[in-house]
C-alpha cells in the first residue's frame, strides 16, 4: 500500500489541537514538560498518521537537538512541540531520513518561538484584566483571568495556525522537499541536521555536567558500544544505571545508606 501524500482535515485538526493544548498548558504543569520534550508530540503524530515507528524514529533525532535547551522565563529559542508537529508529518509524507527531518524542524521551531512570544504580548492585556479584578476583590474574575482566559488565548492563537500549517503547508513542504532532495543544497542541510544532535548532547553536558561525573558518561557510551551486538534494550540500561548510581552513593556516603 502506498503511503499517503496528504493530511486530512481531521488529522491536521487532531495534531493542531494537541499542540494548542500543550502550548496552553491546559493539562496543568505537566504539559510544560510535554512542550519541552518532542517525544510525546511525535507519538501523537505517529498515532494520528498510523505510522508510529517512523514518527518515533524521526522524533528521537529531533529530541537530541533539544536536550540541552533551557527556558529562562518560559521562552525558548525554538519550540520543540511546534517543530515536531510539522517536521514529523513532512518526514513521513516525503519519506525523509531523520537527519533531513532535523533540517526541516529547526526553522519551523524558530517560527514557533515567535508565535509563543506573540502569546506573551496578548497576555499583557489579560494581566491588566486580572489587576482590575484584583482591585475589585472579584475572586471569580481573578480565577477566570489567571487560569481560564490564558488557556483560551493560547488555543485561539495556536490551533488555527498549526492547523493551517499542517493541512495546507505540510503537503506543499513535503512535495518541495521530495523535488529538491537530490540537490546539493538539501544534502548540505541534511549534513548539518545530522550534526545538530551532537550539539544538543554537548549542551546537556555543559548544563548538568561536572568533571567528576564525566567518567559515568564515558562508561555509558562504551557500554552501549560493547553491548550493541546483544541488542540490550533501554530498560536494561536504566536498571544498570540505577545499580551504578546506588553503588556510587553507597561508596560516597556509607552512613546515609545504612540509615
From TrEMBL:
- The answer to whether UniProt assigns keyword Thylakoid to this entry is no
Q: Which domain of life is it from?
A: Bacteria
Matching Pfam families: EII-Sor (PF03609)
* GO CC aspect terms: plasma membrane
Q: Which GO terms describe its biological process?
A: phosphoenolpyruvate-dependent sugar phosphotransferase system
Record's keyword terms, sorted: Cell membrane, Membrane, Phosphotransferase system, Sugar transport, Transferase, Transmembrane, Transmembrane helix, Transport
Q: What is this protein called?
A: Phosphotransferase system PTS sorbose-specific IIC subunit
Amino acid at each position: 500500500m502506498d503511503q499517503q501524500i496528504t493530511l486530512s482535515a481531521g488529522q491536521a485538526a487532531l495534531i493542531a489541537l494537541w499542540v494548542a493544548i500543550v502550548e496552553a498548558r491546559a493539562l496543568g504543569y505537566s504539559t510544560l514538560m510535554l512542550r519541552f520534550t518532542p517525544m510525546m508530540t511525535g507519538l501523537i503524530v505517529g498515532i494520528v498518521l498510523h505510522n508510529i515507528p517512523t514518527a518515533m524514529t524521526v522524533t528521537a533525532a529531533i529530541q537530541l537537538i533539544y536536550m540541552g535547551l533551557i527556558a529562562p522565563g518560559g521562552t525558548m529559542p525554538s519550540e520543540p512541540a511546534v517543530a515536531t508537529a510539522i517536521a514529523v508529518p513532512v518526514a513521513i509524507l516525503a519519506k525523509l531520513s531523520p537527519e533531513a527531518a532535523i533540517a526541516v524542524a529547526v526553522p519551523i521551531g524558530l517560527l514557533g518561538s515567535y508565535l509563543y512570544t506573540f502569546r506573551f504580548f496578548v497576555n499583557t492585556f489579560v494581566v491588566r484584566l486580572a489587576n482590575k479584578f484584583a482591585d475589585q476583590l472579584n475572586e471569580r474574575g481573578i480565577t477566570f483571568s489567571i487560569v481560564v482566559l490564558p488557556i483560551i488565548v493560547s488555543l485561539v492563537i495556536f490551533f488555527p495556525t498549526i492547523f493551517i500549517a499542517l493541512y495546507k503547508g505540510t503537503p506543499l513542504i513535503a512535495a518541495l522537499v521530495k523535488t529538491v532532495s537530490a540537490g546539493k543544497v538539501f544534502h548540505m542541510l541534511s549534513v548539518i541536521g545530522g550534526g545538530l544532535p551532537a550539539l544538543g548532547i554537548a549542551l546537556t553536558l555543559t548544563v548538568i555536567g561536572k568533571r567528576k561525573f564525566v567518567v559515568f558518561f564515558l562508561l555509558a557510551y562504551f557500554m552501549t558500544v560493547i553491548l550493541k551486538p546483544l541488542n540490550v534494550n533501554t530498560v536494561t540500561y536504566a536498571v544498570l544505571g540505577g545499580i551504578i548510581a546506588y553503588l556510587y552513593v553507597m561508596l560516597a556516603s556509607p552512613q546515609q545508606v545504612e540509615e
